[in-house]
Design brief:
Blueprint (H helix, E strand, L loop, with lengths): L1 H19 L5 H11 L5 H8 L3 H13 L3 E5 L9 E5 L1 H21 L5 H21 L1
Antiparallel strand pairs: 1-2
Helix pairs in contact: 2-4
C-alpha cells in the first residue's frame, strides 16, 4: 500500500506540473473539464465535485479572470446558483493541450512495457479496487 501511495503522490505531482504549463491549477483543470462536459451550473458542479460553494466560487472566479470560461445568467433566474458556465475557445484549447500532454505522458510511462504487462497491471488494479469496495 505504501508503494501505491508513493505512486499516487508522484502521479499527482506530475499532473500538477502539466496543468501549470497551461496556466491552470490542478483543481481549475478538473473544474474546466466538467464545465466543458456540460456540467454548467454551480449547483451541478458542487454536487459532482463535492465542493462547498465558497471554494467553488473562488475557483470559478479564477477561471473567469483567466478567460477560460464565461458565465451568463440562466433564463429568468437570479442568484449566483443560476449562472450557466461555458468553456471559452482558450479554455477548450487548454483542455486539448492537456489531453495531448497526458497522452504523451502515458506513452512515455509505459513505452518499455509489453502489452501483456500493461494488461496484467490493469487486471490487478481492478481486482485491488474491487477488494477495497468490498471492505466498505
Amino acid at each position: 500500500m505504501e508503494s501505491l501511495l508513493e505512486l499516487e503522490r508522484q502521479y499527482h505531482e506530475h499532473l500538477v506540473k502539466l496543468t501549470r504549463k497551461t496556466g491552470l491549477t490542478f483543481a481549475e483543470w478538473q473544474l474546466l473539464v466538467n464545465i466543458e462536459h456540460q456540467i454548467d451550473t454551480q449547483e451541478k458542479l458542487s454536487a459532482l465535485m463535492n465542493l462547498n460553494v465558497s471554494t467553488l466560487s473562488r475557483q470559478l472566479g479564477r477561471l473567469l479572470a483567466k478567460e477560460f470560461v464565461t458565465k451568463v445568467p440562466a433564463d429568468g433566474k437570479q442568484g449566483r446558483r443560476y449562472f450557466i458556465y461555458a468553456a471559452t475557445a482558450q479554455g477548450e484549447k487548454a483542455i486539448e493541450q492537456l489531453e495531448e500532454e497526458f497522452h504523451k505522458f502515458d506513452e512515455n510511462l509505459f513505452r518499455h512495457w509489453a502489452q501483456e504487462e500493461q494488461n496484467l497491471l490493469q487486471i490487478l488494479l481492478n481486482r485491488l479496487n474491487k477488494s477495497m469496495e468490498r471492505l466498505e
